[in-house]
């Protein structure tokens, strides 16, 4: 279901950086997030959004339409590092091997 706004929820001009930072921290505090010792910013949400959408196998075009990235190169900077994707791939591969071994053992192939 789309979210409908009955009032203007954006600004026609750049929002002052200090005010944005203050607003962001207020939102995090209200959400109960522990910010002590963490380096997060308003871009943390954008980066997380890109990573989650890519994990859901959304196309670059879909992700860019949501995050408003103008180029695929700009989008790539927000994706998970290849090492993380490789680790996830290897983990999935090993899980598949375990499942197959379990099934082979049940079928008497071992």
UniProtKB/TrEMBL annotation:
Keyword Heme: no
Signal sequence annotation: none
The keyword Ribosomal protein is assigned to this record: no
Keywords of this entry: DNA recombination
Any Gene Ontology biological process: DNA recombination
One of the record's GO molecular function terms: DNA binding
The protein's name: Tyr recombinase domain-containing protein
Organism listed in the record: Gigaspora rosea
């Amino acid at each position: 279901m789309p979210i409908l706004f009955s009032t203007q929820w954006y600004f026609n001009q750049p929002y002052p950086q200090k005010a944005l930072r203050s607003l962001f921290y207020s939102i995090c505090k209200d959400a109960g997030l522990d910010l002590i010792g963490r380096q997060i910013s308003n871009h943390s949400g954008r980066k997380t959004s890109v990573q989650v959408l890519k994990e859901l196998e959304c196309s670059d075009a879909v992700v860019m339409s949501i995050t408003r990235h103008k180029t695929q190169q700009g989008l790539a900077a927000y994706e998970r590092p290849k090492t993380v994707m490789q680790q996830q791939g290897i983990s999935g591969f090993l899980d598949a091997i375990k499942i197959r071994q379990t099934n082979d053992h049940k079928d008497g192939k071992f």
